[in-house]
């Protein structure tokens, strides 16, 4: 089916985190190919603006960590929510696309859909791990789901919710064969150095909870190999300052914090997130659970996944979900997608510096295991590789039903 842009009807869109911004940027590129000149507006970040997106509010205004952070910032979140809703209801878009941020977007999508605006939600909430009952809210709020992983399609079809598996945009963006030498050149890292990438997370709370454990593990790694280089990518100066304050308490020789402006490379590679260069350059990765675990898998790197929630956050999540644990035995995306503990997960009380050190050392030094993981991650990469922008644009166009 081929549709043409016959009216100056806008597409509304909201993305609330850096990972959503990356996904949305790819989708916007696909929409502009299909509908040249269409206005796309709402809440977003730099990747979206690069594609001509008009941001009413910056996505960082929505970047919160769970219930506690959300409660602290509730007045500003409500103000942004009400302003965005008012704009979209006063001048209804042809279709609204919510990118992740389910607490914000599903509520907004429900009100828009009740007012007659078709809605698309991209990145299904992890109902397969926590709070399956959210499926009822999704059914009320979403005209069409776009999902990143093939197993999700079956879940939504079973629930009679229109759904399209569009693959994961990262599988298109990250090369099938990473170039470690080029990444090291961009970072100024010696080609022969043994290098560990350390990714404690992009939120302040993650730095606070994961940083000390990761740094103490790095201290142990340095005792094993004094020549080891540890590189820590940082998303912004605030996170860097927070991490470096911890580094003063837990000093690690040969540890470098890097941001995008620290790279020597130019062009498209330098425009990518600095964490990608660090993972591509590394021999192994110590990483907080989240999207970065999938990125590390697509870069075919051995990894150790870890995560720690505060006791207060654990109690809130258990109360909210009525679950003490996820439905699945895994939390890391590579393990979930491969249905096995292909890489270690050290969570909560198990995430001791000593355990992290031992697992990270094995990831750095077990060449046979690294080769096996490379083969598994290459097969996973192929499974996730689709023309995501085109598939997403097609599904959005169908949902808009000629309104664009």
Overview of this structure, please?
The chain has helices at residues 18-34, 46-50, 66-72, 74-90, 102-114, 135-141, 150-158, 169-173, 180-187, 204-224, 237-249, 268-271, 274-281, 291-298, 311-321, 333-338, 353-365, 367-384, 388-400; strands at 11-15, 40-44, 54-58, 95-99, 119-122, 144-147, 163-165, 195-199, 229-233, 255-258, 284-288, 303-307, 345-347. With 404 residues, it is α/β, with parallel strands linked by helices. Helix 1 (18-34) packs across helix 19 (388-400), helix 10 packs across helix 11 and helix 10 packs across helix 17 (353-365). The model is unreliable at 1-8 (pLDDT under 50). A seven-stranded parallel β-sheet has the order 3-2-1-4-5-6-7, with helices on both faces. Strands 10-9-8-11-12-13 form a six-stranded parallel β-sheet, with helices on both faces.
Specify the helix fraction band. 40-55%
User: What topology, given as strand order, has the largest sheet?
Assistant: 3-2-1-4-5-6-7
Q: How far apart, in Å, are the first and last alpha carbons?
A: 14 Å
Q: Please tell me the overall pLDDT.
A: 89
Shape: globular
Structural class: alpha/beta
The number of helical elements comes to 19
Radius of gyration: 21 Å
Biggest sheet overview: 7 strands, parallel
Measured by DSSP, the beta-strand proportion falls in 5-15%
Quaternary structure classification: single chain
The total count of strands amounts to 13
Spans of at least 5 consecutive residues with low confidence = 1-8
């Amino acid at each position: 089916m081929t549709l043409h842009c016959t009216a100056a009807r806008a597409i509304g869109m909201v993305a609330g985190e850096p990972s959503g911004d990356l996904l949305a940027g790819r989708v916007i590129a696909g929409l502009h190919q299909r509908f040249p000149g269409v206005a796309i507006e709402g809440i977003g970040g730099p990747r979206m603006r690069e594609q001509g997106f008009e941001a009413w509010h910056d996505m960082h205004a929505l970047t919160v960590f769970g219930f506690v952070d959300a409660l602290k910032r509730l007045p500003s979140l409500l103000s942004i929510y009400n302003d965005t809703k008012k704009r979209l209801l006063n001048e209804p878009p042809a279709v609204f696309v919510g990118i992740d941020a389910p607490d914000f977007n599903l509520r907004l999508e429900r009100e828009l859909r009740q007012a007659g605006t078709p809605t698309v939600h991209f990145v299904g909430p992890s109902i397969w791990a926590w709070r399956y009952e959210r499926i009822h809210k999704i059914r009320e709020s979403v005209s069409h789901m776009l999902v990143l992983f093939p197993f999700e399609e079956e879940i939504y079809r079973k629930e009679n919710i229109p759904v399209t598996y569009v693959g994961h945009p990262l599988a298109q963006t990250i090369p099938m064969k990473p170039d470690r030498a080029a990444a090291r050149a961009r970072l100024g890292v010696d080609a022969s150095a043994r290098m560990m990438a350390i990714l404690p997370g992009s939120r302040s709370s993650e730095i606070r909870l994961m940083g000390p454990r990761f740094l103490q593990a790095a201290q142990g790694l340095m005792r094993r190999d004094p020549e080891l280089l540890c590189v820590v990518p940082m998303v912004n100066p605030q996170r860097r300052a927070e991490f470096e304050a911890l580094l003063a308490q837990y000093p690690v020789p040969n540890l470098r914090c890097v941001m995008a402006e620290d790279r020597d490379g130019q062009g498209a590679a330098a425009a990518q997130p600095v964490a990608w260069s660090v993972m591509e350059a590394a021999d192994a990765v110590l990483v907080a659970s989240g999207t970065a675990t999938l990125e590390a898998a697509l870069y075919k790197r051995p990894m150790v996944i870890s995560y720690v929630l505060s006791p207060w956050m654990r109690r809130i999540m258990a109360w909210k979900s009525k679950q003490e644990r996820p439905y699945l035995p895994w939390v890391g995306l590579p393990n979930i997608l491969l249905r096995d503990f292909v890489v270690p997960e050290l969570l909560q009380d198990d995430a001791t510096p000593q355990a992290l050190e031992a697992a990270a050392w094995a990831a750095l030094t077990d060449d046979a295991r690294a080769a096996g993981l490379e083969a598994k991650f290459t097969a996973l990469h192929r499974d996730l590789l689709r023309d995501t922008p085109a598939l997403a644009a097609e599904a959005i166009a169908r949902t808009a039903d000629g309104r664009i």
